[in-house]
Amino acid sequence: GNSVTQMEGPVTLSEEAFLTINCTYTATGYPSLFWYVQYPGEGLQLLLKATKADDKGSNKGFEATYRKETTSFHLEKGSVQVSDSAVYFCALSGSSGGYQKVTFGTGTKLQVIP
Amino acid sequence: KAGVTQTPRYLIKTRGQQVTLSCSPISGHRSVSWYQQTPGQGLQFLFEYFSETQRNKGNFPGRFSGRQFSNSRSEMNVSTLELGDSALYLCASSLGQYSSTDTQYFGPGTRLTVL
After folding, report:
1. Which burial class, exposed, middle or buried, applies to B47 when counting CB atoms under 10 A from its CB (0-12, 13-18, 19+)?
2. Which strand (E) or helix (H) includes residue A27?
3. A108-113 and A11-14 as β-strands: parallel, antiparallel, unpaired?
4. What are residue A97's phi and psi, to 5 degrees?
């Protein structure tokens, strides 16, 4: 079946540091890939998505490129802020057992310190 | 456009009781999915409803059930509550297309505490 693997957290960075959160996936066919963010006490918010190979999703300074050859969708940001502290989930939407299904990674907690 | 709403936001119950959670999807969305989120297990899929029919189901006991109404609003019910049911229950809606590009939009969740 489909699966998503994210780097273990927590990730602690100083403000203005460069961020990379690794995400790799296993899926059949042509899944879409997503990054969601969850701030404390809230639900998940869609951060960005990419629906085909070599697409780059971007939002709020975050970027991720759909790499089919390496089955990866790593999240990057050039300069993080304290307000970026949250849990980040990588997800894929694809066919599994005859259904369209969304599969989430375990989440990576990011803490940004001033 | 209003987002996904969930009620109530917080709930405290005791073991053995039952609980009903409600979710109103984004207008025009026909699919509603439910997830359980706990610190130990992460985000786990419960079930998905589309046009009042359960289209997909996760690996949860029969105490967990749901339904969807003709206006796409959905409820989930947990009977005979156990301590381990304490979690954040998230609802997500989507257009419901049989397409990988269909994006899920999440509500704020219902925080259930079982004492």
Report:
1. buried
2. none
3. parallel
4. 65, 30
A102 in contact with B, Cβ within 8 Å? yes
Q: Which amino acid is at A106?
A: T
Mutate which: A35, A92, A100, A108, vs B, most B CBs within 10 A: A100
Evaluate whether B109 touches B10 at the Cβ level (below 8 Å): no
Q: Do A100 and B45 touch (CB under 8 A)?
A: no
- Closest-CA residue in chain A for B89? A43
Length of chain A: 114
Distance CA B71, CA A111 (A): 40
Q: Give the C-alpha separation, A107 to A55, whole Å.
A: 22
Token representation of residue B54: 């359960």
- For each of chain B's 115 residues, which pLDDT tens digit applies? 689 999 999 999 999 999 999 999 999 999 999 999 998 888 899 999 999 999 888 889 999 999 999 999 999 999 999 999 999 999 999 988 777 678 899 999 999 999 9
Rounded-to-integer distance, Cα B4 and Cα A56, Å: 27
Count other C-beta atoms under 10 Å from residue A78's C-beta. 11
| Distance between CA atoms of residues B28 and B4, nearest Å | 11
Q: Judge whether A85 and A13 are in contact, CB under 8 Å.
A: no
With tokens 């869609």, the residue in question is A46
User: Residues B39, B17: contact at Cβ < 8 Å?
Assistant: no
- Token pair, residue B79, equals 């009977």
CA–CA distance from A80 to each of A60, A94, B2 (Å)? 10, 31, 29
